[in-house]
Amino acid sequence: MGGHRFQFEGSEPWILWIVAALLALNTVLLLFLNFSAKYFLPETSPDLPPCPALANAGVQYHAPKMLCWYADHSIAIQFVILAVLASVFFLFRKQVRYIRPYR
Q1: How far apart are CA 95 and CA 25, in angstroms?
Q2: Chain segment 31-71, per-residue pLDDT in tens
Q3: Which of 44, 57, 74, 91 is deepest in the core (most CB within 10 A)?
Q4: Spatial distance between the Cα atoms of 45 and 29, rounded to a whole number of angstroms
Q5: Which residues contact residue 27 at a Cβ distance below 8 angstroms, ignoring those fewer than 6 apart?
Q6: Is the pLDDT of residue 81 over 80?
Q7: Cα 58 versus chain centre, distance
Q8: What is the pTM of this model?
Q9: Residue 68: other Cβ atoms inside 10 A
Q10: How far apart are alpha carbons 65 and 59 in whole angstroms?
Q11: What is the mean pLDDT of residues 85-93?
């Protein structure tokens, strides 16, 4: 029981490691951004625009445009990375082997 049931014959493709690292990095950044906005970003700022994607409990935090863009698109980026990961498995499907569970 448990564990994965698919395995690459030989070594894994290097692109798999890169995409998996991007997925992990994006997940950590996404969670850290939502958690840390109230601690590191100002509620009002004359120099920074308000960011609707970083609103929490009615408070809209002000952030640089690039950070606000990332906060607004981070879920879409996550799904794109997951689609790329699935396409890696599809492209290297001849190297992937199914392992039957023990009974």
Answers
A1: 26
A2: 888 788 777 777 777 888 888 888 777 778 888 899 889 99
A3: 74
A4: 23
A5: 78
A6: yes
A7: 26
A8: 0.79
A9: 20
A10: 18
A11: 91
